[in-house]
């Protein structure tokens, strides 16, 4: 049975919504003119209300932590220090408010936990080798600390320290912390319901998958060929892993083996922890070193392309929340033939033969959108609120999209269209960072904060995309791995970036799909008007140009063809490249159609009236290269017509970059101030 995804990461949404619902309302400003008796009366009423609420939640309550310490609470704690990642995960699972401080701020800001911006509200505790500064902790005046026995021994006499269980040896103990915490925070019934649904979810995954594959997770590697993996401890052994494939322990345990040992273990799936860009780069390098080892290539998991990266926040199922997230993330990767994505509540019920839990309106809306995007609406049409979108540059078949998209996720550099077309983006990637470097004023601080960072499109964190619930996703054919799952989140436009080098085709296509066709035409018209003014300013005198950039080494120069975005503008203005510059077709035989390397000895081939020198890969290399005697002989160098372009916008295709390129050519070739002849409507984005 293959299970079709209808709502990706349903539980992630539930987590975030639950946390949001638990957030306290803002307090109204005090009325300083009120008399003292009114204030006292109000305070009395509030106290009575609080006592009533506490009584309804079962307060006072006495609980026992994992170390046997008893704690009594007269009311739900309001100032909580959640020391470790498990502490934060357990708070999220029970739907409690943010803690006031933690040592695990990197997890707190993850979208599956408290999300972007929480690092501005939650204090990252000072520490010495991950031992917290206890004086700082006490200065925060917490009414509860979630931590370990060491913390309890250090400051337990001053403030309640609830010792959590990090080595659960049974299912009962695995859920014990969240059950006890649910009493502390007055959320018992809600948490029991969630535990029940989690166990049903795990059972359904086990039944539907057949528990055929061993999954090693949390794996790390080093250049010497040793690997570390987390034994199938935790709850995955009880529900997901093949029986007999795990250790007898119920908790995770690091095991170190060589590549030869991995061959003997023969895992079916490996999940590598992603701790961030630098850490992941080191792990990738280690895996690449192992890839040179013939034995590594013998691993079935490598042959079957079942080595996957997963964010640290969801990669180790050491607590109920992460078990839930882990299953929804890993099972579709491990069993692509059986799961197109995480199970919905309806699918869980179908597998187990039970009555489905009630579906939220958000799930219903998502299911309806999915039916439309896959063309499965009644009668073969798109359904209410949707329309069929067709375009020559689509990488896929025509598809149904929202008639009025409200929450769009841009996966790559197309995010640069947001300020041009007057829309917002639910996401940002590394391409946003490049855009923002060139145009720092294009997005407001609020816009940036509202966008979830998905990293690089090649390894986009899909669970983070869903958290902003986009109703339309804009992607490209280069991001194959992400594109396998994006259509399961929302209708996804995948552009064929190899269809044409004409950037305007994609720009107007995006304007059309997001219902901004007229705005798109106006933007293109404004570019044409400025290009005409620039053409007049340049005149008809023949001039030649090249677009180049220094590379990482001194022995070659990166030469761009007319496919380069800036070069495209120059060519339309009548400027020509020297005969020695390769055409796109010729360059594709050397490197690709956009650029090719040129040796130092061949520098005379780029002798032109104007040299547009883009910012080099390495500043020191660029400085040394420009001192080369051969470079100094070029006409543009001698005539002071080497134009330094400080940014990436000459290689990025979007309207704001087009306008800035026009500014450059006005300034360097026509030698005219563009603001006096044809002002740039987007000059504010970079000036």
Report on the architecture of this protein.
The protein is 41% helix and 15% strand. It has 687 residues and is α/β, with parallel strands linked by helices. Strands 5-4-3-8-9 form a 5-stranded parallel sheet. The chain has a 5-stranded mixed sheet with strand order 12-11-10-13-14, with helices on both faces. Strand 3 (80-82), helix 3 (85-94) and strand 4 form a beta-alpha-beta unit. Helix 3 crosses helix 9, helix 9 packs antiparallel against helix 10 (188-209) and helix 26 (565-572) packs across helix 31. It is elongated. Residues 1-56 and 358-380 have low confidence and may be disordered.
Summarize the entry for a quick read.
The protein has 687 residues and is an alpha/beta fold.
Which labels suit this protein?
five-stranded mixed beta sheet, five-stranded parallel beta sheet, 687 residues, 41% helix, 26 strands, alpha/beta
Q: Average pLDDT across residues?
A: 81
Span of the ends, CA to CA: 58 Å
Rg, Cα atoms, Å: 30 Å
Sheet with most strands: 5 strands, parallel
Q: Would you report the number of β strands?
A: 26
Q: Give me the number of helical elements.
A: 32
Shape summary:
elongated
Q: Roughly how much helix do the residues carry, as a percent range?
A: 40-55%
The SS-based structural class is alpha/beta
Within the largest sheet, what's the order of strands? 5-4-3-8-9
Question: pLDDT under 50 segments (min length 5)?
Answer: 1-56, 358-380
Task: Give the topology.
Blueprint: H1 10-22, H2 36-56, E1 61-64, E2 70-73, E3 80-82, H3 85-94, E4 101-102, H4 105-108, H5 118-121, E5 123-124, E6 127-128, E7 131-132, H6 134-139, E8 144-147, H7 149-155, E9 161-163, H8 171-174, H9 176-184, H10 188-209, E10 215-221, E11 226-230, H11 236-239, E12 254-258, H12 259-265, E13 269-274, H13 277-291, H14 294-298, H15 300-303, E14 307-311, H16 320-334, H17 345-352, H18 361-373, E15 386-389, E16 399-402, E17 408-410, H19 418-421, E18 427-428, H20 430-438, H21 445-450, E19 452-453, H22 462-466, E20 472-476, H23 480-483, E21 492-495, H24 503-513, H25 517-538, E22 545-550, E23 556-560, H26 565-572, H27 584-590, E24 595-599, E25 610-614, H28 619-626, H29 629-632, H30 635-638, E26 642-645, H31 655-670, H32 674-677
Parallel strand pairs: 3-4, 3-8, 4-5, 8-9, 10-13, 13-14, 17-20, 18-19, 20-21, 22-25, 25-26
Antiparallel strand pairs: 1-2, 6-7, 10-11, 11-12, 15-16, 22-23, 23-24
């Amino acid at each position: 049975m293959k299970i079709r995804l209808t709502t990706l990461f349903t539980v992630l949404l539930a987590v975030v919504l639950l946390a949001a619902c638990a957030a306290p309302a803002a307090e109204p400003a005090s009325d300083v003119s009120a008399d003292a008796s009114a204030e006292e009366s109000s305070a009395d009423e509030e106290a009575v209300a609080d006592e009533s609420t506490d009584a309804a939640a079962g307060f006072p309550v006495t609980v026992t932590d994992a170390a046997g310490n008893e704690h009594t609470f007269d009311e739900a704690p309001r100032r909580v220090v959640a020391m470790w990642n498990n502490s934060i995960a357990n708070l999220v699972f029970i739907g409690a408010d943010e803690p006031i401080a933690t040592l695990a701020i990197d997890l707190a800001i993850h979208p599956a936990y408290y999300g972007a911006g929480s690092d501005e509200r939650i204090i990252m505790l000072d520490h010495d080798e991950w031992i917290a500064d206890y004086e700082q902790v006490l200065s925060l005046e917490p009414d509860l600390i979630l931590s370990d026995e060491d913390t309890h021994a250090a400051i337990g006499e001053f403030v309640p320290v609830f010792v959590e269980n990090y080595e659960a040896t049974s299912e009962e103990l695995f859920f014990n912390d969240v059950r006890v915490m649910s009493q502390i925070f007055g959320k018992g019934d809600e948490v029991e319901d969630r535990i029940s649904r989690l166990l049903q979810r795990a059972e359904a995954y086990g039944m539907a998958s057949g528990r055929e594959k061993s999954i090693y997770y949390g794996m790390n590697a080093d250049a010497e060929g040793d690997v570390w993996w987390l034994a199938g401890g935790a709850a995955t052994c009880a529900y997901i892993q093949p029986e007999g494939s795990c250790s007898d322990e119920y908790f995770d345990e690091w095991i170190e083996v060589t590549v030869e040992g991995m061959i003997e273990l023969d895992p079916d799936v490996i999940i590598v922890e992603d701790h961030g860009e630098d850490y992941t780069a080191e792990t990738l390098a280690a895996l690449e070193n192992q890839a040179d080892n013939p034995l590594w290539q013998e691993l079935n998991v490598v042959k079957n392309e079942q080595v996957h990266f997963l964010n640290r926040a969801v990669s180790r199922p050491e607590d109920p929340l992460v078990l839930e997230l882990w299953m929804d993330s890993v099972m579709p990767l491990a069993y692509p033939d059986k799961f197109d994505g995480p199970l919905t509540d309806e699918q869980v019920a179908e597998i187990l033969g039970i009555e489905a839990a009630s579906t939220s309106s958000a799930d219903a809306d998502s299911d309806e959108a999915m039916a439309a995007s896959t063309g499965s609406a009644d009668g073969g049409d798109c359904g209410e609120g949707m329309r069929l979108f067709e375009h020559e540059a689509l990488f896929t078949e025509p598809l149904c999209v929202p008639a009025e998209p409200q929450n769009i996720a841009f996966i790559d550099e197309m995010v640069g269209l947001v300020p041009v077309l007057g829309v917002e983006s639910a996401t940002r990637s590394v391409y946003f960072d490049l855009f923002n470097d060139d145009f720092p004023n294009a997005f407001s601080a609020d816009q940036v904060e509202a966008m979830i960072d998905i990293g690089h499109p090649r390894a986009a964190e899909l669970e983070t995309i869903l958290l902003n619930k986009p109703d339309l996703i804009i992607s490209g054919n280069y991001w194959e791995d992400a594109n396998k799952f994006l259509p399961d989140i929302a209708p996804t436009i995948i552009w064929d970036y190899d269809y044409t080098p004409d950037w305007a085709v994609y720009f107007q296509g995006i304007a059309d799909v997001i219902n901004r066709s007229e705005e798109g035409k106006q933007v293109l018209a404004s570019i044409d008007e400025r290009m005409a003014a620039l053409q007049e300013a340049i005149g008809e005198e023949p001039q030649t140009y090249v677009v180049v950039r220094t590379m990482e080494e001194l022995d070659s120069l990166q030469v761009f063809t007319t496919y380069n975005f800036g070069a495209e503008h120059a060519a339309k203005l009548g400027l020509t490249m020297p005969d020695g510059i390769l055409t796109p077709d010729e360059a594709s035989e050397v490197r690709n159609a956009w650029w090719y390397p040129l040796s130092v000895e061949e520098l005379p081939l780029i002798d032109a009236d104007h040299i547009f020198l883009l910012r080099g890969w390495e500043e020191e290399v660029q400085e040394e290269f420009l001192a080369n005697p051969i470079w100094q002989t070029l006409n543009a160098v001698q005539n002071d017509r080497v134009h330094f372009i400080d940014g990436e916008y000459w290689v990025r295709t979007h309207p704001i970059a087009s306008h800035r390129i026009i500014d450059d050519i006005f300034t360097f070739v026509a030698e005219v101030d563009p603001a006096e002849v044809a002002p740039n409507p987007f000059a504010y984005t970079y000036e």
